[in-house]
Amino acid sequence: MRTERNLxxxxxxxxxxxxxxxxxxxxxxxxxxxxxxVLFAATLAFYLxxxxxxxxxxxxxxxxxxxMFFRPYQQWAGIHWFVDYYVVLGQRGPTAVMVAAWLGxxxxxxxxxxxxxxxxxxLLLLNITxxxxxxxxxxxxxxxxTVIGSNEMGLGGDIFPSGHTANAVVTWGILAYLASxxxxxxxxxxxxxxxxxxxxxxxxxxxxxxxxDVLLGWAAGxxxxxxxxWCEPLIALAETRIFDLRxxxxxxxxxxxxxxxxxxxxTAPVLLKPRASSGEEVPAARETVGASRSARPPAHLAPxxxxxxxxxxxxxxxxxxxxxxxxxxxxxxSTATARPATGG
Length: 344
Fold this sequence. Notes:
The protein is an all-alpha fold.
């Protein structure tokens, strides 16, 4: 009796690493639902509130100075080495390479470019929005502050909002955005939120950012993630165009004229037109039987008198042009049966 081997957990893991035969039909594309719109509006209000509190030099700016004078890197010097490594999770170069490698494998496995195109769109939106805010507000960091208690705005700096925090929200949040199941999306969302907040607090610990920079960077990255469903139609259009270009390029690269179909045997007589009697040379036109039949070379007749084309015997169904002959034996018949016996 033959029994099937039970798959172990390791077997199932390796089975998921194989490429799927075709693009899955159950790929979930998030829509701009009402819940997402409400969350986007609340995050935008929080973003504007942080900017207003910093511009008006409110209690938030005073709290920034208190944290800076506390000097966390001196209070907890034992974890300095760990924070130096942990803050790399917010640097754009290393994180983009790691996430792009993972999403590239996802694209290969599922026969789709959507993961990579989504990452590219996300980074483009992040660079435009966060970069414009940094240059527009021009806030100096704690290490370059000039006046105690001031907001340090408009002095040519580029640390408000925190790029490390916003980049951590985006690069790790996209894994939750592209998750295949709701459970995986919830767990990855929580992990990306904790990671991004940890990266922001690491910059405050090292003294490179104010605390308000981190809050605004977290809101900036979340706004980009929440607005991503509005870009899904453009991502789908770009994927379709890229696949069309790939197919055209493959056809042009290996494009050869298709081989002609094999000629079929002649099953109908070929009709001939008679030669004009006035001496005009009218070429004999044959009706082609089948579109793929090749033209025959011109026939050359032996010297001697010939009958006109109209006096010749018409073409028989088997394709013979020769006149009947009493001694001619049809092909495929024996001599004894086809030719009568003559007396000796």
